[in-house]
What does this fold into?
Amino acid sequence: MKTHLVLLGLPGAGKGTQGQMLSKKVGIPFISSGDALRSELKKRTDIAKEFEEYMNAGLLVPDDLVEEFLEKMLKRYDLRKGFIFDGFPRTTHQAEFIERYLREINVPLDAAVYLSVPDEVIIKRISGRRVCPKCGAVYNIYYNPPKHDEICDICGTPLVQREDDMPDVVKKRIEVYKKQTKPLIEYYKNKGLLVTVNANGSVQEVFNRLEGALND
Ligand code: ADP
Ligand code: AMP
It folds into this structure.
């Protein structure tokens, strides 16, 4: 099974949902740049003040800043048995950085998994997204609601809506994705690493397809 992975796809495609499920099942770390950046914002660190403006506007944090942050974050993980990167790389510059980083620690990249979903599905998924600010679990009020009204099933914390999930910011994030991140699909295709998964379907259906594709 392919276990050294980066996830690609529009905001709301299901990268966090599928990545967390796979991480639990296979026992490899799920590492999300978005989660890590949001947790840095909560700590109100100096570096977070530099991220905040970009994140709230739906823009990418500039490559030099984010790469420095990612490098420090990645050093805390043992990546040898596998990994699932969610939210990075997001630009060709970041993809080259990740390649360099992995080469230096002698760890391969097996696949770039593209979760493919039509635009119209994305809007409803994002508008219904609720997240646990404590443990990072992801829910959806339409498709995947918690058992008790907006309370995390896992840790009992009240769920929140991400600030950048408001409609105006979502529009910007989709635009930014198409311009800056979508070219990575071609980038990984050219390297023979692209694995495309149809991510339009129930969470379980998509997970079955994902596992099937990684076992091919
Ligand atoms: P991403 O990490 O790609 O931004 P998420 O995993 O956070 O996406 O999913 C976005 C929203 O859509 C969440 O509210 C999640 O619960 C919901 N979701 C994810 N996968 C599906 C699916 N297959 N069907 C319906 N809703 C989904
Ligand atoms: P996400 O949770 O992946 O949707 O990311 C939320 C926001 O965090 C993005 O809109 C960006 O502002 C920022 N962000 C997350 N990952 C990256 C990255 N790899 N490069 C630049 N900005 C990022």
Summary: Residues 4-117+169-215 form a domain with the Rossmann fold fold (CATH 3.40.50.300). The first strand starts at residue 4 and ends at 8.
